[in-house]
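dude i think i finally got it to work??
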Amino acid sequence: MVSLTTHDPGKPSALLRAWTLVLMAPVAWAGSLGLLFSLTDEACTSGSRAMMWRVATACLALTLAPAVLAWRARREIPTNSDAGHRARFMMSVAIGASLLFAVITLLSAAPIGWLDTCRT
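look at this
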């Protein structure tokens, strides 16, 4: 298995991975918001919401992925330096943001099931 962290959490590559994990969930949520809105016209004309459900499911998976990856990475980070403490904090933020945006993504996808896709 490829390690998500390096042995030195102060390296630029480790910092890039940490920021990627922190920002992945909000970007996935923003993508779902735009994609689901743009799919409403297609769902109205076709009468099927299947594509909207697929997009919502994929975006939900993308918002949850950073939590799993950050959880694994957080356990591997050494705590014997300030850089290690900062990296562990960033992984904790990534876990929290991922879970928060997963809930937001679920809430934004819930109306697919009960609202009419055709606007009046």
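The helical segments are 12-38, 40-46, 50-76, 82-109, 111-114.
im so relieved honestly
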